[in-house]
TrEMBL record, chain B:
Species of the source: Christensenella massiliensis
Localisation per UniProt entry: Cell membrane
A Pfam family of this chain: BPD_transp_2
Membrane topology: Multi-pass membrane protein
Annotated TM spans: 21-45, 51-71, 78-96, 102-125, 132-149, 169-191, 222-247, 253-270, 277-295, 301-320
Keywords: Cell inner membrane, Cell membrane, Membrane, Transmembrane, Transmembrane helix, Transport
Protein known as: ABC transporter permease
GO MF annotations in UniProt: transmembrane transporter activity
Keyword Protein transport in record: no
Main localization (coarse): membrane
One cellular component term from this protein's GO annotations in UniProt: plasma membrane
Higher taxonomy: Bacteria, Bacillati, Bacillota, Clostridia, Christensenellales
Keyword Glycoprotein among UniProt keywords: no
């Protein structure tokens, strides 16, 4: 039974608690074709690929490989055997083992009754594979000695050591240099010429144009575009990716902008370099950039979570030293981290414990339960946190309500500057709008908000001023009304 | 508003019942054991024997009052018995050679505990060494120090000290049991009602999130080991009174008694969960079993086997209840 398409996904739907992650999405790739899958964070790209790999099960829809139905109960291992391979952003290799061992991990050739590894055969198999793709490596080199690009090649080789039909690559260039990227392109084209269907996920539009044949654009769990790469433009893609009525979601209220509260000068922290900015009372400052552009490092350096190797921080004109969040809290800085589960909340504990955690000092050595309950009730009401009681584990709430609890705990501490990192990641549209409204309200009360986001519409929608981060540095600054989404995305994602 | 409050009260009652789950099964286990033992031995269900059980639990309960707090942070303290041995020999030296009165002896016991607890605390909280590794090491180091101080048995001659260890109030209730419950209530109160207790649970539940919320997690953990050391030092001093002598090998090899009881009490070794009530019930279950088996003249070796099996069973029940097996 043949088919026009090597891989076809039809009507894929996936519901997460509170979020419809995929809504009846199709996807097709022909043999020998490279398809770009693009869209903003949360558009549904990775959910789609997790369903393809078998890591998640879809609620509706089918997957066909060469016209034949892939049974949904097949797990990742079985799908790999069928020829569906995925290379994730984080590479999975063992530094201390050789190329050959990494290539055939899990199925090393064995000999004898004791099933010891047959290194001779292993070497031979590895050499064959390396030769097939003209890679000049010694199979017994330790993978730890290779460059990142070479490791990436090994990772790809591992995927294609099987008879691969569909290869998914998730942001494969995120850790590669320019020349390494070129090598990778050549390799991808080579693979395609051998009849592999390739799905290439990327944020970087210049890469999409360099290496793909077709482009599928996703937004809010839907396919909003399926185009020939040579017939489209960067502008068109950005429009498709962004394309929603911005004014409905972001009811921008102009707050009175006052004096500078927080000022940072020439901050270095890990990849973030020479970061200087100021934020004023009543202002929302957006720090926009792609993942790994240094926004989080800059902020975590300022807050003392990571070591700030250079630079100065001023709060209300006074120079301050912030070594940790205890200091930060003292100076009126609050931080809502990007990962609720790992850094924001103590999941197993109650809404109560998670909300009062920042203000335990005000509740006395023996906790004043009455005062605590009154305070928490107030925040539950103010932020409309949907919880049956303050004493249920915060784990049992939806993502949006969990995020509100993180916000509540910091608002309880009465901050002057609220720094939020990806405040709406993984929560539904309704909760997003509530959080935007809340941030606007806080500004009207004279709080300064610094918002890190990789979602452009929300940054453009509610920020008064936007700093664009790329490769660890601030590459542009726009005031409200002066920016368009296209300009910003072109600076953040485009080529030089 | 009023309906909200009503719903809230109802819910929190339900929540309380939920958290009682593990404790409830321990209480049922205790009742079941008591019935079984009463049938098996006429000597079991008597007031005197009940007091024996409590007396035998007293030292463990004191140690566990400290160790539970440390373990809720995701920590561990295996060095308690060694700290106790040092406290015992130092106290009896002070009492014998300097004629120190009981209150000084008690202060010395506590002081020794705090001092060696502080060593654990610095290593674990500030130098970030894994708590199990740290206290396995300090368990040996402290034991060695106890032997270096003295390698002979030091008699306790202070009558009031011995009374504290094995005397009875009104010929009914052992003094050490009352002291042990004093420790229990202090730890219970500390964990349940104070700011420090809340911080202990939060740090244990998610240390990163706690730090990012402005909690001084290092300090919290350090204090936990101070408390664990204090309990260990006091227990070591009390054991000397109970036995009537201080020995450098005191408590050697029984380090796991406390840990077993605490784990049986429903504490999560990864931190964030556990309670003093659970710990108390865990101690009672193990002690009732030990006492009953002694009454039935079951050999010590078989007792170890049975006690170990109970622990595996209890943890297994917990695993099954959490659904972790099904997830695999």
């Amino acid at each position: 039974m043949g088919s026009e398409y090597r891989l076809q996904m039809k009507g894929v739907t996936k519901q997460f608690p509170g979020v419809l992650a995929l809504d009846n999405v199709d996807l097709e790739v022909k043999a020998g074709e490279v398809l770009a899958l693009i869209g903003e964070n949360g558009a549904g790209k990775s959910t789609m690929m997790k369903i393809l790999s078998g890591a998640l099960v879809n609620d509706q829809g089918e997957i066909y490989l060469d016209g034949e139905l892939v049974p949904p109960e097949k797990n990742a291992r079985e799908r790999l055997d069928m020829g569906i391979a995925i290379i994730y952003q984080e590479l999975n290799y063992l530094d201390e083992m050789t190329i050959a061992e990494n290539l055939f991990m899990g199925e090393l050739p064995v000999k004898g009754a004791l099933k010891t590894v047959d290194y001779k055969k292993l070497k031979q198999q590895a050499q064959e594979l390396l030769k097939r793709f003209d890679l000049p490596y010694d199979p017994f080199t330790k993978v730890g000695n290779l460059t990142t690009a070479e490791k990436q090649m090994i990772e790809i080789l591992r995927a294609v050591s099987k008879d691969v039909k569909v290869l998914v690559m998730d942001e494969p260039t995120s850790s590669l240099s320019e020349t390494e990227v070129q090598e990778l392109y050549g390799f991808i084209k080579d693979l395609a010429s051998r009849g592999v269907a390739i799905i290439y996920i990327s944020h970087k539009l210049d890469e999409v144009f360099a290496v793909t044949d077709k482009i599928q654009v996703m937004r809010d769990g839907k396919r909003v575009g399926y185009l020939n790469t040579k017939d489209t433009t960067e502008e068109e893609l950005v429009e498709l990716m962004v394309g929603r009525e911005v004014s409905d979601m972001y009811p921008k209220v102009e707050a009175e902008i006052g004096d500078v509260i927080l000022e940072v000068k020439h901050v270095d922290c890990e990849i973030a370099h020479d970061i200087s900015f100021e934020v004023r009372k009543g202002e929302i400052l957006g720090l926009f950039g792609l993942l790994g552009s240094g926004r989080t490092e800059a902020v975590e350096g300022i807050l003392g979570k990571k070591e700030m190797t250079a630079g100065e921080v001023y709060v209300e004109g006074k120079k301050v030293t912030i070594k940790n969040m205890i200091d930060a809290k003292k100076y009126g800085l609050a931080y809502v981290p990007a990962s609720r589960k790992d850094e924001g909340l103590v999941l197993m504990h109650s809404v109560r414990n998670n909300t009062s955690i920042t203000v335990l000092d005000q509740l006395g050595g023996i906790i004043d339960k009455k005062k605590e309950t009154a305070m928490i009730d107030q925040w539950i009401r103010k932020l409309q946190i949907k919880t049956p009681s303050p004493d249920v584990p915060v784990d049992s709430l939806s993502g949006g309500n969990q995020q509100k609890v993180v916000l509540a705990k910091w608002l309880a501490a009465d901050p002057k500057v609220l720094i939020v990192n990806e405040p709406t990641r993984g929560i539904d549209v309704g909760a997003k709008v509530e959080i935007y409204k809340l941030l606007e309200e806080l500004c009207q009360q004279g709080i300064a908000v610094v918002m890190i986001s990789s979602e452009l519409p929300e940054t453009v929608g509610i920020a008064d001023r936007i700093l664009i981060f790329k490769e660890g540095e601030i590459k542009g600054e726009f005031n409200r009304r002066d920016f368009t989404q296209k300009q910003i995305l072109q600076i953040a994602a485009g080529g030089e | 508003m009023s309906t909200n409050e009503a719903a809230l009260r109802q819910r929190s009652f339900k929540e309380k019942m939920g958290s009682m789950g593990n404790n409830l099964s321990l209480i049922i286990a205790i009742i079941g054991l008591c019935i079984a033992m009463s049938i098996a031995s006429p000597h079991f269900f008597t007031f005197n024997n009940m007091m024996n059980i409590l007396l035998a639990s007293a030292i463990t309960l004191i140690r566990a009052s400290g160790a539970t707090i440390a373990m809720i942070t995701g920590g561990m303290d295996l060095s308690q018995n060694s700290v106790g041995a040092i406290a015992g020999v130092v106290c009896s030296t002070a009492s014998l050679s300097m004629g120190a009165p009981l209150w000084v002896v008690i202060l010395i016991g506590i002081g020794v505990g705090l001092g060696f607890g502080a060593i654990n605390g610095v290593l674990i909280a500030y130098l970030k060494i894994n708590p199990i590794i740290t206290t396995i090491a300090t368990m040996q180091i402290f034991r060695g120090i106890a032997w270096l101080i003295t390698d002979v048995t030091l008699q306790v001659s202070d009558k009031s000290w011995i009374f504290m260890g094995r005397g009875y109030i009104g010929d009914l209730v052992p003094v050490s049991v009352i002291i042990a419950f004093g420790f229990f209530f202090l730890a219970f109160f500390l964990l349940k009602y104070t700011r420090f207790g809340r911080q202990v649970y939060m740090v244990g539940g998610n240390e990163v999130a706690s730090r990012l919320s402005g909690i001084n997690a290092n300090k919290v953990k350090f204090i936990c080991y101070l408390i664990s050391g204090l309990a260990a030092g006091f227990a070591g001093m009390l054991v000397a009174g109970q036995v009537g002598a201080a020995l450098p090998q005191n408590g050697d090899g029984t380090e796991m008694d406390v840990i077993s009881a605490i784990v049986l009490g429903g504490l999560s070794l990864s931190g964030g969960r556990g309670s003093m009530v659970g710990t108390l019930l865990g101690i009672l279950v193990l002690q009732i079993v030990a006492n009953g088996l002694q009454l039935l003249s079951v050999s010590q070796y078989l007792q170890w086997v049975i006690t170990g099996c109970i622990l595996v069973l209890a943890v297994l029940i917990d695993v099954i209840r959490s659904g972790a097996l099904k997830k695999q």
